[in-house]
């Protein structure tokens, strides 16, 4: 069975078709400007998200809220997930 690579549930052929349509609509000379604008927008969003996370952590520390609880919960979730993966792996092999 031949499996195609997918990105966000979109196959390679669909990505190529979308790129073709973008080139036809905007023209090849406008694509770098569009990509640059999208990159700047994504960077601004990432910076804003990091600022919000930093402010929340700073406020939690200021009020004495323990933020290590989240990391311990993530560790426990990872352990349970690994256990489930091990179990389902043995079930899949039996089938």
Write the layout of secondary structure elements.
Elements: E1 6-7, E2 10-11, H1 12-26, H2 31-62, H3 68-94
Antiparallel strand pairs: 1-2
Description:
The protein has 95 residues and is mainly alpha-helical. Helices cover 78% and strands 4% of the residues. The chain has 3 helices and 2 strands, in the order E-E-H-H-H. It is flat, with a radius of gyration of 22 Å.
Label this structure with key terms:
single chain; 95 residues; mainly alpha; two-stranded antiparallel sheet; 3 helices; 2 strands; 78% helix; flat
Mean pLDDT reading:
81
- What is the C-alpha radius of gyration, as a whole number of Å? 22 Å
Low-confidence stretches: none
What portion of residues belong to β-strands?
under 5%
Number of strands: 2
Euclidean distance between termini CA atoms: 18 Å
Morphology: flat
Widest sheet: strand ordering: 1-2
Q: What structural category characterises the helix and strand content? A: mainly alpha
List the helices and strands in order: EEHHH
